[in-house]
Amino acid sequence: MDSVPAIGNPVHIRSSPTLFRGWLVVAGVFITLLVTSGLGFYNASVILQAATEEFDASVSAVSGATTMFFAVGGVSSFALARLMDRADLRWFYVAGGVAGAAALTGLRWVNSVAGLYVFFALFGVGFALAGLVPGTSVVARWFTVRRSVALSIATTGLSVGGIAITPIAARLIRDRSLSEAGPILGAVWLLGVIPVALVLIRSHPSDLGLQPDGAALDETEKATRSTDGATFRQAVGTRFFRFLAAAYALIFMAQVGAIAQLFTLATERVDRTTAAASLSALAFASVVGRLAGGLIATKVSTRLLTGVLCVVQTVALVLIALAGTRGALIFGCVVFGISIGNLLMLQPLLLAEAFGVREYARIYSFGQLLATVGVAGGPFLIGFLRDIWSYQTAFLLATVGNVLAIGLLALAGSAEEARLETASRKALYQPQDQPSRPSL
User: Fold this and answer.
1) Which residues have a Cβ under 8 Å from the Cβ of 183 and sit 6 or more positions away?
2) CA separation (Å) from 329 to 78, 111, 335?
3) Which of 28, 297, 351, 380 supports an S-S bond with 201, CB 3.0-4.6 Å?
4) How far apart (Å, rounded) are the C-alpha atoms in residues 219 and 134?
5) How far apart are CA 100 and CA 126, in angstroms?
6) In whole angstroms, how far apart are CA 11 and each of 5, 14, 21, 391?
7) pLDDT per position as a tens digit, 23-57
8) Closest listed residue to residue 159, CA positions, set 345, 304, 314, 347
9) In degrees to the nearest 10, what's the CA dihedral of 47, 49, 51, 55?
């Protein structure tokens, strides 16, 4: 028989003899991100390029539509994040599946730049409800010790979507036009999100009597699990959160802006086949880089790894800016993919390390909302600079954001310092002459 632990001693945990249920959750997030990124994140540049041809519009005019996509997505995620921390996340996937499918189906009636903006606004809602915020939130809840590995596997779905789905979507749009391809893409979105989420994803390990990383959950831990980590107010008041949010706004400005314009850049410089190959190379390198990064993050400082990858992203943008041949473009995209795959995964990992999972969805979504300044502005800024000068100048100027981000990461401090700061805030606001009341 297991002995009863004394008060203050570590609780004995019984290992589960079967596959940990959390890996099925990771599989569910992987598949849903594969679909939403393949038809949304990576496919945005394909839709952008097709719109410039079909609507005879300038790059800067249609680039604002993708800005709308990311801006609406960021606002929607944060507006619903408080509910995500409390409600069953599967219902968000259902809503996101319906909204995304409706938007893509609606491409059938989009025949102007104004209609493109309306499409991307609705599409942004669908992408937010079935995208990174619910996906990283649920994985962070299910894993602690192996969180970096689990996040790297789950978010690899983003890159696999770029490899497996985006080229097919690009070919479909090229052969049939946006209006004819839209309903087909909408059906894929619907079937790839809702059934998968309902079958594989569960909001909390405690719902099944488990704790993060597996094993049975002790009754005492069940009572205290909901209070683990910092609250939203405690987290956003820290230096770590503020500087990290600013750094990622700059990182994403360069990253998302470059991705959104990459298909058009490669088409202009070489041809459409090279453009599709460049996106595939980008996505493939992102897969390999992210999986390696998840393992490396278990051995080295996550903040240091983030800074190194900012340098890698800077080098990649310079390579793409100067590339004039098929080989040079693809090589630049491979280097770029190594950075984007990891930087996207490291942001939620940094926040989970610093603030725990108590109100993680709200903390992460607010960080994403602040970063939306860069995410939303990047495609438009690079498109605008291209219309004034050239893609070469636009991509070279985008590297400035990465250099500034490295400095901000250095000023942010470590996750350990952030935890100490939130602990001091708790002590500061805790009445000293009255016993603390339990959280409701």
Assistant:
1) 104, 105, 107, 108
2) 36, 32, 10
3) 28
4) 27
5) 4
6) 6, 10, 21, 59
7) 999 999 999 999 999 998 878 878 888 888 888 87
8) 345
9) -170
Contact, 241 vs 347, CB < 8 A? no
Report the first-to-last Cα separation within the chain, whole angstroms. Answer: 35
213 phi-psi bin (left φ>0, alpha ψ -120 to 50, beta other): left
Spatial distance between the Cα atoms of 80 and 2, rounded to a whole number of angstroms: 43
Q: 351: which residues sit within 8 A by CB, 6+ positions away? A: 235, 241, 244, 360, 363, 364, 367
User: pLDDT digits over 147-163, tens only?
Assistant: 888 988 998 888 788 78
Query: Within 10 A of 352 (CB to CB), how many other CB atoms are there?
Result: 26
Helix (H, G, I), strand (E, B) or coil at 213: coil
Residues 6+ apart with CB under 8 A from 30: 153, 154, 156, 157, 160
Distance separating alpha carbons of residues 204 and 187, to the nearest angstrom: 29
| CB 294, CB 153: distance < 8 Å | yes
Residue among 266, 392, 372, 246 nearest 317 (CA):
392
∠ CA 376-404-284, rounded to 5°:
60
CATH 1.20.1250.20 is held by the domain 22-422? yes
> Contact 124/68 with Cβ under 8 angstroms?
yes
Residue with tokens 């680039």: 63
Q: Are 243 and 249 in contact (CB under 8 A)?
A: no
Q: Which residues contact 180 (CB under 8 A, 6 or more apart)?
A: 108
Between CA 115 and CA 110 the distance in angstroms is: 5
- pLDDT band at residue 440, thresholds of 50, 70 and 90? very low
Most confident of 74-83, 192-201, 386-395: 192-201
Q: Which of 383, 380, 378, 384 is nearest to 399 (CA)?
A: 378
Distance CA 28, CA 33 (A): 9
